[in-house]
Amino acid sequence: SVREPFSEPKRYTVAPSAAGRIELSHIQGIPLLERVVKYWPRVEKFQASEEDLLIATYPKAGTTWTQEVVDSILNEGDVEKCKRAPTQVRMPFLEMTAPDGSSSGITKLEVMDPPRVIKTHLPIQLVPRSFWDAGCKVIYMARNPKDTVVSYYHFDRMHLYQPEPTVHYSICLVLCKMGILGWGSWYDHVKGYWKERHNKKILYILYEDMKEDPVREVTRIAQFLKRQLSKSTIEHIVQMTAFSAMRENPMANYSTIPDTIFDRTASEFMRKGEVGDWKNHFSAGEDAAFEEHYRKIMSDCPIPIRFTI
Ligand SMILES: *[C@@H]1O[C@H](CO)[C@@H](O)[C@H](O)[C@H]1NC(C)=O
């Protein structure tokens, strides 16, 4: 397949309607979208309940996939129940506010009764305190950083209210610890939850493991959620949450997000869902430089992340 280098901004022109493209602001040194920062106080003081479940990921690491798996488990594989509403309504995005300010994760959560399933991309130190005070369960999914950054790049091309994906999406971005992307450094993010996984109720799962053996990983998630499911229900959930099924599911494929926000001519939200697409974007030299850097930074935290399966 054709290699698409990051460092070729001229190929990726941004639609003229992209007036909403913005820069990032910061909370405690973590770069976040301005609208996340603007409404931060109400996120910070959000009151979680003990039965709430938090699904935490770095952006583009299998969030929607994990959400759909969890909702399918909680509804015991009932397809119709899982299609009751779009992902962002069923499982609100804690810190997010719509670009026009019309709705937010918090406003959605406030009218829902626990147990609620809540999505976040916040690094562990920014998760509202009430989640820990209440002893909430957390499912964290990590994905290898090469595929994550490739996915992030294509996402920013299509999401017109994300910062413009041009110069800073060069390989330098990876070498700079990805610290200039929204939600901060990938390294700090995956390490933060990893180091706390035994101190808090955190189930740590890996995208590549779930891709390799979804039956095994869905079973682990079901056990963590204390749901007894038959082997055939687990297998059914695996079918329901396969990339091809989710891409065609209007309640899971973000087709409800308007074209003024998602420019689907640039890229699709459900793009590939594969392990190893980075090979189409990284040259051998870039990969070698990345590997050297990665080994150094991860040496104090050996998370068994794989780049191929
Ligand atoms: C989402 O699902 C619907 C229904 O299957 C389909 O028509 C649509 O093409 C899918 N993809 C997107 C990006 O909306």
Structure write-up:
It is a single chain. This protein is of the alpha/beta class and about 300 residues long. The chain is built from 15 helices and six strands. The protein has one domain: Rossmann fold. Strands 4-3-5-6 form a four-stranded parallel β-sheet, sandwiched between helices. It has a two-stranded antiparallel sheet with strand order 1-2. The chain is globular and about 50 Å long. The N terminus is likely disordered. It is an enzyme of class 2 (transferase). InterPro entries: P-loop_NTPase, Sulfotransferase_dom.
Write the layout of secondary structure elements.
Blueprint: E1 24-27, E2 30-33, H1 34-38, H2 40-44, E3 53-57, H3 63-74, H4 79-82, H5 87-90, H6 105-110, E4 117-120, H7 129-133, E5 137-142, H8 145-158, H9 171-175, H10 186-196, E6 202-206, H11 207-212, H12 214-224, H13 231-240, H14 243-247, H15 284-298
Parallel strand pairs: 3-4, 3-5, 5-6
Antiparallel strand pairs: 1-2
Mean pLDDT: 85
What number of domains?
A: 1
Number of strand segments: 6
Biggest β-sheet strands, sense, barrel: 4 strands, parallel
Side-by-side strand order of the widest sheet:
4-3-5-6
- Overall CATH class: Alpha Beta
CATH H-level homologous superfamily name: P-loop containing nucleotide triphosphate hydrolases
Q: Would you identify the regions where 5 or more consecutive residues have pLDDT less than 50?
A: 1-19, 166-170
- The helicity comes to 25-40%
* Strand and helix order: EEHHEHHHHEHEHHHEHHHHH
Small molecules bound: 2-acetamido-2-deoxy-beta-D-glucopyranose
Look at the helices and sheets and give the structural class.
Answer: alpha/beta
Hey, roughly how much beta strand do the residues contain?
5-15%
* CATH fold naming: Rossmann fold
Query: For the CA atoms, what is the radius of gyration?
Result: 19 Å
In CATH terms, what is the architecture? 3-Layer(aba) Sandwich
Oligomerization category of the chains in this entry: single chain
Distance between the termini: 19 Å
The helix count comes to: 15
Family: Belongs to the sulfotransferase 1 family.
GO biological process, one term: xenobiotic metabolic process
Enzyme class: transferase
Keywords: Catecholamine metabolism, Cytoplasm, Transferase
